[in-house]
Design goal:
alpha/beta, 15 helices, DNA polymerase, domain 1, about 325 residues, 2 domains, Rossmann fold, seven-stranded mixed beta sheet, globular, about 15% strand
């Protein structure tokens, strides 16, 4: 077995054809995959390069090892352990001023979900971890250290959980006996806190809280905000920025971030002429986000909530 197989690192790239279409990969271009994951998108970009370069980032060291192995036969590709919020630093250290395309595939990877000991899944009993980078404080530290008010805010803000306060109180009460240490303990607390009628609605009752904890532990929205603010300026004129989201909070951030770059004059409508001088810096490649086709949904159910947005830097 290869190292990648030993880690059971498989990856079905979501919205692959749509991503390749909006990136419009040029053989001699420079492209950056900020969330390499299992390498599915990176591999297809690498196949299309002849004289170009591909930089693959991931904060998960297991992903870095797997993608490095998968792309070893492509000399155009370089894999680096880093968060996509660090794109300016990475490119600066490589002496690259601008790129032709950037891709982000947000959220948790298939490998992370399917490796029980990583603690991302509410379907397995595992340590409360959820760290994508395998470093720093994990889910257990967060859940055992935060106050009821802080947990309520986290569950509402990052999971849009309507029973956030009840779940937070349940966690605080349970940890009086002993600190939380497993995903099963967290799931049981969530089930007990949510009314029976609500538990029968909208999928697994722990889904929103697990999302909230993961997003908070990994600073996902903060890092996305940094990337949206900094990465656009690293595109060449005509360069494209494509982002796949899987939940509404991310999608709203991307939509607003892209809108800022496509906005032009901000003068009041009653001004006879523009005095602000602001002009659009980008144009949307997709007027509406691309979603998975019925065929992709059938072959890859995890693509159900995927949304792809893309913007081009105006020449």
């Amino acid at each position: 077995m290869t190292g990648m197989e030993n880690m059971n690192f498989h990856h079905v790239p979501v919205l692959l054809e749509a991503c390749l279409d909006v990136l419009d990969v040029k053989p001699g271009g420079i492209y950056l995959d900020g969330t390499a994951g299992g390498g599915g998108h990176s591999l297809e970009i690498a196949k299309r390069l002849q004289g170009g370069r591909l930089i693959c980032l991931d904060k998960d060291p297991q992903a870095v090892a797997a993608v490095s192995e998968r792309l070893a036969v492509y000399p155009c590709a370089r894999v680096i352990e880093a968060d996509f919020a660090e794109i300016p630093r990475v490119l600066g250290e490589m002496g690259i001023d601008a790129v032709d395309g950037i891709l982000l595939d947000l959220g948790v990877s298939s490998h992370q979900l399917d490796t029980p000991e990583r603690g991302f899944s509410y379907r397995d009993d595992a340590p409360l971890d959820m760290r994508m980078s395998l470093s720093g404080p994990g889910a257990a530290e967060l859940l055992n250290g935060a106050s009821a008010d802080e947990l309520t805010d986290i569950f509402r803000r990052y999971g849009e959980e309507r029973f956030a306060a009840r779940i937070a109180r349940g966690i605080v009460e349970a940890r009086k006996a002993k600190p939380l240490s497993t995903t099963r303990e967290l799931v049981d607390i969530i089930r007990a806190a949510i009314p029976a009628a609500a538990r029968r609605e909208g999928g697994h009752p722990a889904k929103r809280v697990f999302q909230a904890v993961r997003v908070c532990v990994n600073r996902e929205l903060e890092n996305l905000g940094i990337c949206l603010e900094k990465a656009f300026d690293l595109l060449k004129p005509g360069g494209r920025f494509a982002i796949i989201t899987f939940q509404s909070l991310e999608d709203r951030m991307v939509k607003r971030g892209f809108a800022k770059y496509t906005a032009g004059c901000t003068c009041p409508p009653d001004f006879p002429v523009c005095v602000c001088g602001k002009k659009p810096r980008g144009r949307l490649i997709l007027k509406k986000p691309a979603v998975a086709s019925p065929g992709e949904l059938e072959s890859n159910p995890r693509s159900k909530s995927a949304r792809l947005r893309a913007i081009e830097r105006i020449r």
